[in-house]
Amino acid sequence: MTASQIITLLVLAAVVGALIYDKLRADVVALTGAAFLLMTGVVRPVEVQSAFASPAIVALASLFVIAYAMELAGLLDEAIRRTVRLCSRIGRAGLWVLIGLAGVGSAFLNNTPIVVLSAPVVRDVARSLGQSPKAYLIPLSYAAVLGGCCTLIGTSTNLLVNDMASVAGQPRFGIFEITPVGILVAVAGGAYLFLFGPRLAKSDNDKPTATVDEAMQPPTRFREPGLAGGLVGTAEPFAKQVKLKPVAALISTVIFVAVVALAALNVAPIAACAFAGAVLLILLRVITAEEAYSGLRPEVLMLIAGMVVLGIALDETGLASSATDALIGSMEGMRPLVALIILYGVTLFATELLSNATVAVLFTPVAVSMAEAFAVSPRPFLVAVMIAASAAFATPFGYQTNVLVYQMGGYNYLDFMKIGIPLNLITWAAAIVAIQIYFPF
Hints:
- Helix content is 72%, strand content 0%.
- The protein is an all-alpha fold.
- The two termini are 35 Å apart.
- The model is unreliable at 204-238 (pLDDT under 50).
């Protein structure tokens, strides 16, 4: 092995170890690894610069600004207020309506603020109806995760995989290209959550103490748990209840729909459309520049940028290709379908331990190389990485929204395993079937 390969391998091991040990923020860990690789000359300054200016970073930052403008206009709060009123009329069914809406909204907006706003409402309304909040908070988080798998902009993982695949010479995904697969996975997972989630998570020790009127008060500003290496960042920008501002709500919604439509029609890349939309919101004074910066969520952007630098190092030093060759060599004689199933499973297992960005960086090159080795389309393998890197349900730390409900619901680790492991298996099977239908080899 060369000196650069040894250094990169040591940095990768240190980053993975620090993320599992979980005492430092994930973005700080990723940036520390990137800085070390830069100082040792494994990566060049121009490569680091390209990581921080990648289309995934630009698109995600711009979408954060647009979503924050919609939140400041009171759209999410108004939707939740209306759902609470519905819950007071139709009871438990209203909770499932709110959970379903959270899933739909997460296909287009960042799911962290959606869960931050919805979770206290679900908890308090459940108590007012004499129900255990535990029966609904985990399904809320999981529904938000499943919703994010339905579009290219539903999660930062999809954008990152798309970006890295394009660097490897693959055509970019359309904004709704993965939607058929995501919907089938979401429907399968949603059916399981509706039928079995509440009875698996329900606790008889919960006492109903709130009323529906209390649930309509501003969401509780719960303490951010110090878990998952600080992946979630701070929920503070999303915790304030905002009255509906009709004009701002209309403008921000129109701009968001225009961004999605233009990207879907391939008028311009999603990064360009989202960036233009974010700037237009500032020019129209729907959101101030200061507010736009507040909604950027730099901890997520820096985590992704740092992990992209690590991915560049793995590629430039040849470690990625060596690891892929070894993996593919062990699959000699297998059918592509078996390789797809294995790739999904390995990615899923890694996501339970590491951040989504880390997994995307590690497994996207593997997906492309694996497809080339089997002489088939890389599309099925890339979609498998997208879904598996997000759809991690067996631990409280597999996804940031799980962390958000972990403390609020008073769950323990076993609660997530009881509900999450069967859900992992169901979504795994659904994803493989759907990928075979919509992305044939």
